[in-house]
């Protein structure tokens, strides 16, 4: 992969754990932020490129380290990738399954790489990839992926931390089937959509996840010649085709990045606007912020937030889309720590996603947690501290708390933040925040 120097610098920078954010709180923000393409769509669209024997040009791809690592994984498969600014040119004519050790490190660096299993099985009838471990926010099992692929004719063998998979049909082609997911899983729904696109016959996915990123995947695959109906609903039908061609595709805006900056505006009681975002994907988040006391103006791809000076506490329960996104639970908790009243925040998607609480309390917040429910008693003041983010969204939440806090906050854990946000501190700096990346 010929990654240009600036991309290599990003990778070098991100991988070094020495970087930190230095934030002087209390600034009022103003201006506009352009929202980037969605991380959780770009990564799966890159995996889906394995399905076609053509050229895929992806536009509006965020420049984040997860995209760089996924590019390296595809390159290790012999795929030619050219990246320039927010565009990827992916040529998948030639693919060869690489030697195992190259794969191991790369796959372990990025959980979503496991989503390549569907496309690899659909294209090659076999795959051998490292078993994705859990992560800090939860055990992240893959049983839904495995059990569903088995119904399309796949047999699996787990050995030495590897998963070997083979399509056990005469011509090694997957066979369409009806799948009833036991839980709404974004990843399992995406894996089965990709696998079923080249299967023989029709696959029906019941109790499917409905996230906008799943609609984005189906839209790109249909552009490549797939026959997918119902993406975004609980029942998706995929009529398998013989082959898929290349395409040009633009990734949807990142609703989680947009939500994070809306909360940055609310926590600093600042009026800002977002452009190149999709307000429709943020309805539940907007409703909760309106209940807090924020007003909104929106038009196509544009959103303006106007927070009251005093924000009220509101309760949230995270749940699969269109519920309140678990990826905005931590940033929203930082906001509720500064609100007037007491709020209950229940995390129902991941069993271990409250690591930010201890750090927020060290800044003077008043949060107690029991059985994945956080009780947040709003306080008037937070104080700047040295804090450590231990996952992507927790680190973003601590930075937002730093924007509100009195004095200086040092946020460590940027290697997580830069996995999912392009130019996070630069964008906030352009709005007038006193934030430096050091
Ligand atoms: C996707 O992860 C996102 N990642 C996550 O974003 C996001 O938090 C999550 O969906 C939920 O919205 C990407 O898209 C790359 P799931 P995914 O399968 O697909 C259980 C971020 O911050 N489950 O929908 O891995 C699982 O344990 C990241 O950007 C099974 O039990 O999530 C969890 O409790 C973090 N068996 C629930 O389903 C399975 O086989 C939802 O997980 C699969 C999942």
Structure in words:
The chain is elongated and about 70 Å long. It starts with a helix and ends with a strand. The chain has 15 helices and 23 strands. It has a four-stranded mixed β-sheet. It is of the alpha+beta class and 438 residues long. α2 packs parallel to α3 and α7 (186-197) runs parallel beside α8. The protein is 34% helix and 24% strand. β17, α11 and β18 form a beta-alpha-beta unit. Ligand EPZ binds at residues 39-40, 43, 112, 138, 140-145, 183, 185-188, 209, 326-327, 349-350, 392-393, 420. Residues 39-40, 43, 112, 138, 140-145, 183, 185-188, 209, 326-327, 349-350, 392-393, 420 line the site of ligand EPZ.
Total beta strand runs: 23
Distance between the termini: 29 Å
Backbone shape: elongated
The largest β sheet comes out as: 4 strands, mixed
What ligand molecules are bound, each kind once? ligand EPZ
What's the quaternary structure here?
A: single chain
Strand coverage percent: 15-25%
Radius of gyration: 22 Å
Strand order of the largest sheet: 21-22-1-23
Q: What would the average pLDDT be, to the nearest integer?
A: 93
Count of separate DSSP helical elements: 15
The low-confidence parts are none
**Could you say which structural class the secondary elements and strand pairing correspond to?**
alpha+beta
Helix coverage percent: 25-40%
